[in-house]
Batch of 2 targets.
Target 1
Amino acid sequence: MKTPIRVAVTGPAGNIGYSLLFRIASGAMFGADQPVILQLLERNNPDSQKAVKGVMMELDDCAFPLLAGVVNSSDPKAAFRDADVALLVGARPRSKGMERADLLDANAAIFVEQGRALDESASRDVKVLVVGNPCNTNAWIAMKSAPSLPAENFTSMLRLDQNRLMAQIAAKSGKTVNDIVHPAVWGNHSPAMVPDLEHAQICGRPALEGIDRAWYEETLIPTVAKRGSAIIEARGASSAASAASAAIDHIRDWVLGSGDRWVTMGVPSDGSYGVPEGLVFGFPCVTKNGKYEIVKGLELSDFIRARMQKSIAELESERDHVAKLLAK
Ligand code: NAD
Ligand code: LMR
């Protein structure tokens, strides 16, 4: 029997939590022979704690063979103790009519506290995925609040944007997502993101040979970039099952390897492609042996570069806005 992987999950009583925990416990994240211990962190108020107890009862009732334990705490240091993976989901989600920037102040303090707690008690190799929005800047805050952990341990979730891009291309081209390789989404998880088809292939041919450039620029890009709002409009709540599924994809590929496939991850920039060092930015990556690498040496068109500048400017302004919190 393998040693269990300790997975901390924040916001377990929320919508994404409810879609995520059961899949982790069933083996979808690390494979069918890898036990897990879930370490839950929920807010310390009676309603949230009552709800999390209900989720834990349901986890028990699934009798998952791979679930080696579940602990619940409202103390970040306890919940992150020795964690190998930390999924930072818990945050206030955007509701109808609210812009992501409005979330910045509401959520920044959470990620200062959680970054400090990770610094103190998580495994030194902990793989952190920030899902709670605005996820790139929240990941940056957590990273800066955890100076003793390597910066590259902190990532944010753009995999949902890559998955959305692939689904749209598959539908347009009449192919399946399995026929598509090398899609990428650069930048911020916000409407300023840059879905990039310029390197993508469908059935081994350049995607833009079969897909009309005007449709790509004028329809596909805004559809993917504003999909979060479209889901909120349709469901009355932000995406949950698809977000949980993307979180599984992100961590599974980071831990088990992506092979030749590109996987979009929000990672601290190493200065590649002119993205200022340290900004947590969506890049196409490949993963191997538990490490990711940004795909280097791609030719970027002026069209893509100009859009990337918007994401850079947005992330710099978010970073400057929250930087004062770190000084406290
Ligand atoms: P939700 O409101 O249903 O659940 C959030 C949960 O987090 C609640 O149970 C809440 O009590 C808990 N929580 C809040 N503050 C906490 C804290 N400090 N510590 C621990 N738990 C805390 O929201 P949801 O639908 O599950 O969404 C969660 C977050 O994920 C939101 O910020 C949302 O915008 C974001 N999101 C990101 C993506 C992405 O692609 N990056 C996609 C969808 C949603
Ligand atoms: C999403 O992309 O579905 C989420 O980030 C929700 C949102 O606020 O856009």
Target 2
Amino acid sequence: MADPTVRAPLGMLIELTHRCPLHCPYCSNPLELVRRSEELTREQWSDILTQARELGVVQMHFSGGEPLARPDLPDLVGHARQLGAYVNLVTSGVGLTADRARDLAERGVDHVQLSLQDADPALGDEIAGARVHAAKLKAADAVTAAGLPLTVNVVLHRRNIDRVERIVDLAVGLGADRIELANTQYYGWGLRNRAALMPTRDQLAAAHQAVRRARAKHEGGPELVYVAADYYDDRPKPCMDGWGNTQLTVTPTGDVLPCPAASAITTLPVENVLRRPLSEIWYDSKAFNAYRGTGWMRDPCRTCPERNTDHGGCRCQAFQLTGDAAATDPACGLSPHRSLVDAALAEVTDGPAPAFVLRGPVAP
Ligand code: SF4
Ligand code: FES
């Protein structure tokens, strides 16, 4: 029986494919990537978009992997537009020519979120594991030339966090309307590279100052969002604004997840949209109801005054670090497992960081 207090989802992350021309060490996609031959067809995706709109989804985020790797992306964007959804394209920019950007704008893309790895071309290419930096700059030009609003998104970590101001200068120069600097979250492949990616405490303190200076320098310019590193905080992030609260994710095979990283929770009874309607999965499935609200919480969250604000932190992080998705997020200073996070922090020294392992390509 559906809980009458559960609201319709606002947004859906549409992972069209796991294929990607980049090999980022912080990739939050699962260790096992979906093969091309297992991806849903255009017809199946069209039906999912229709179901999502009927369910109440108003924001559709086309993502991946690299969504441009799917030749049917323009058709699916057109379908989303016909349904009346706001369409966001989340892309590496590789392959986003001026013609493609114009076509996608005409079909219905409302906004583009473009990733950059660094301000320095050689380091950007090194972090991406591919020579893509120059193509990304061209893609940014293509987006603005097509009249689309642009968000530049940069994942921060030990190798690039010292260049925050140069990164912001570059993004402003590219015409970004919004700049998002997000410290790495350690999921999927990124967790494997955690020791190589974690910044030092001094780097983080310097980055906070750099963000402050960049905001002052570009006052009146693009919105600058900085997502803090929760391992270094005493309280966890309010992940996903609460489990099964506002967003859902559909993977390249049609698995429906309460958050993009939730396939890491191996105890979660994940359902697939090819076997059950999307609305039933949203309202009635065990996976979506498992950590909704506060009823599932144990102490210390159960009686904590902050439980309705941070929702007990992140379920995926709790599972990955403790093996129990219902545990308090170990990033919380009140968690009985906080020592797991402190141990990871203790490994971060001022000496050279370990080399990161680039992500390999999707198997054919
Ligand atoms: Fe949040 Fe739970 Fe920590 Fe309280 S104990 S601050 S609800 S994670
Ligand atoms: Fe899955 Fe936080 S990333 S709940």
